[in-house]
Amino acid sequence: MKTVLVLGGYGRCGSRLVTLLSSDPAINCIAAGRNPPANLQNKNVIALDANDRSSLKSTLANNIDFVVNVCGDLEKNGGAIAQTCMESGIHYVDMGAGQEYANDFLKLNRQAAKNKVCLVTNAGASPVLSTILADHLAKEFERITHIHAAYSPGNRSVGARGSLYDLLKNIGKKIRIKERGRWQDNHSWSRAEKINFPKPVGSRRLFLYEAIELETFPARYGANTVTFSTGFELSLFNLGTTWLAWRKRKKQGKRPEAYASLLASAAWWLRNFGSDKDALAVMMKGEIAGQEVDHVAYLIGRSKSSLVIPCAPAASLIKKWVNQGIDKPGATSCQDLLQMDDIRLELSQHDIVLVRR
After folding, report:
1. What is the pLDDT of residues 104-130, one digit of tens each?
2. How far is CA 79 from the centre of its chain?
3. Same domain membership, residue 158 and residue 99
4. Peptide bond into 127 cis (omega under 30)
5. Which portions of the chain are predicted below pLDDT 70?
6. Nearest residue to 148 via CA among 242, 285, 278, 279
7. What integer pLDDT is reported at residue 74 of this predicted model?
8. What's the predicted TM-score (pTM) here?
9. Is there a domain that residue 228 lies in?
10. Is residue 131 part of a domain?
11. Could you tell me whether strands 352-356 and 143-152 are parallel, antiparallel, or unpaired per DSSP bridges?
């Protein structure tokens, strides 16, 4: 049996990840955090401040095999935690925090390989599942011109302060996207659009947002235009976030991330509104035999699937490591470590289905 330590493991995202990992009888999963709730039923919980290097190293010495980090601001502490795991000979996974973080993370590759440790970032729905869907669609094109990826969480997937902090930190900032073959500047959380997801998700309003795909998809698929969007299920949160993004662009008031706790509290109070149905889509346009064609692939959560889509890649990767071993040590991004077959069972067990149009 292998032991997995989940940093931030009793939060919204962390507790879902612990549930997914604990379904494998070969995994002993431990949830860690600074202030575990006293009424938590799971006995496999420890108090740990992951930013305290000595405490983390002491915990890692207790027969820990893998660490998954979902405990907060990765740009601030993710690299240091990954470094500590590497020095302790422990394999490490996180869900990523943008291209700049990934670029710094990958600089650990040579040292990680020397220490025979695997360090993985970007193990989330973006870019792992979006890349799997894009690879699935790309086989049907001779030439790809446009790709649009979109992630829409249900309202009951919203509420983790750490993830909201990361989102609000990025809204309103200038981002670089490729459109019609040229790189252009735009702003994160702009260009609102409605996307009609298959039932039971339905129509949702999403906004242009910074994502790894904006950098990787143009080179991977040769597309002239690549965009990524996300948004809240409830219009109230979309309106508030749009206002914060506008104020940031105008350099007015507090930084948007200062409102993360307020937004998390509002999401908790409104948790009975909206749904627990998350959705991911990749829309692709291009040519085959000289004719313009377009195809769309969706992952749709149909019932009680809140947060499975963003957590499934990390859970699937750990399970793959536990059951098949690690092929190659080093520091890498997750999107090429998993295929559809690696993640299909995890999704289907939680009523998440692939829909084509």
Report:
1. 999 999 999 999 999 999 999 999 999
2. 17
3. no
4. yes
5. 37-43, 159
6. 285
7. 79
8. 0.93
9. yes
10. yes
11. unpaired
What phi, psi does 246 have (nearest 5°)?
Answer: -65, -45
- pLDDT of the residue at 75: 77
Is residue 244 located within the same domain as residue 99?
no
pLDDT of residue 163: 80
Q: Kindly state whether residues 39 and 174 are assigned to the same domain.
A: no
Q: Say what the pLDDT of residue 254 is.
A: 84
Residues 71 and 138 in one domain: no
CA dihedral 222, 279, 210, 159 (to 10 degrees): -160
Scan for tokens 């702003």, then name that residue: 187
From 166, 160, 136, 199, select the one nearest 306 (Cα to Cα). Answer: 160
pLDDT at position 41 is 56
| Number of folded domains that form the chain | 2
At residue 209, the 3 state secondary structure works out as coil
Q: For residue 299, give every residue at least 6 positions away whose Cβ sits within 8 Å of its Cβ, in sequence order, or none.
A: 129, 133, 279, 280, 281, 309, 347, 352, 353, 354, 355
Torsion of CA 175, 157, 131, 353, to 10 degrees: -150
* Percentage of the residues of the chain whose pLDDT score is greater than 70: 98
72 and 189 inside one domain: no
The CB density around residue 258, as the number of other CB atoms within 10 Å, is: 13
- Please indicate, yes or no, if residue 330 is contained in any of the structural domains: yes
Question: Can you tell me the distance from the alpha carbon of 32 to that of 15, in angstroms, rounded to the nearest whole number?
Answer: 10
The verdict on 112 and 16 lying in the same domain is yes
pLDDT of residue 142: 95
Report d(CA 228, CA 206) in Å as an integer: 9
Between CA 163 and CA 56 the distance in angstroms is 22
pLDDT digit string, tens, across residues 40-74: 556 688 888 888 899 999 999 989 999 999 987 77
For 109: left if phi > 0, alpha if psi spans -120 to 50, otherwise beta; the answer is: alpha
Could you list the residue range(s) of the whole structural domain that residue 178 is in?
125-301
118: domain CATH number?
A: 3.40.50.720
Within a 10 A sphere around the Cβ of 40, how many other Cβ atoms? 13
**Ranges assigned E (strand) in 275-351:** 279-288, 291-301, 330-333
